[in-house]
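Deliverable D2.4 — example input (structure tokens):
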């Protein structure tokens, strides 16, 4: 079952950019990616990024209002690729597999995304900002659809509970305390099978 009405994945072409504007955007994003890799994203400032990119504050602020919006822009392509795989990819991540296996595959894909881009995600989603991103709304609809498909009672009450372990702050805390990506993924697989297994009477 393919989720209906999922947000993001905007297939409209963006308006054309002037060559100098495109160069500035690329310069800003490349510099920001390096800064986020080298620093705790919670300490990164707009001045840090402007300095690293070699652009003025005005140039930076005309395109991005804050650090979080730059992190979101950097994450956009990675998250869109995952969304495309959820919608039209091969099972179990894409349609065609039992819901518990799809939820488990989603968890595995998110662990991979977090392991590769945790600093960017932390920069984009610190605190309440996480719940305002288009990506989070996409993940909510996907998980709710899987729960509904499985016959889980009151699926809406469980959606954010199931997404909570995927917060970048939680993931980084686990990694800093010695858990490996494989261990985190294994725990999430148990969670996926347990929640949906309780509803169906058996683990998928």
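Example output (designed residues):
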């Amino acid at each position: 079952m393919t989720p209906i009405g999922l947000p993001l994945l905007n297939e409209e072409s963006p308006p054309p950019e002037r060559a100098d504007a495109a160069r500035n955007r690329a310069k800003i994003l490349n510099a920001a990616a390096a800064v986020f890799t080298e620093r705790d994203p919670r300490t990164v400032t707009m001045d840090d990024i402007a300095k690293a990119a070699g652009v003025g504050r005005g140039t930076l602020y005309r395109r991005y209002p804050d650090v979080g919006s730059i992190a979101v822009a950097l994450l956009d392509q990675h998250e869109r690729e995952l969304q495309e795989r959820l919608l039209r990819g091969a099972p179990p991540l894409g349609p065609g597999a039992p819901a518990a296996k799809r939820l488990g595959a989603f968890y595995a894909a998110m662990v991979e995304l977090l392991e590769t881009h945790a600093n960017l995600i932390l920069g984009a989603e610190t605190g309440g900002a996480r719940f305002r991103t288009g990506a989070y709304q996409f993940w909510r609809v996907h998980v709710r659809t899987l729960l509904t498909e499985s016959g889980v009672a009151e699926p809406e009450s469980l959606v954010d509970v199931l997404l909570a372990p995927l917060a970048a702050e939680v993931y980084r805390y686990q990694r800093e305390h010695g858990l490996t990506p494989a261990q985190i993924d294994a725990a999430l697989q148990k969670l996926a099978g347990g929640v949906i297994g309780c509803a169906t009477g058996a683990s998928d």
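The mean pLDDT is 86.
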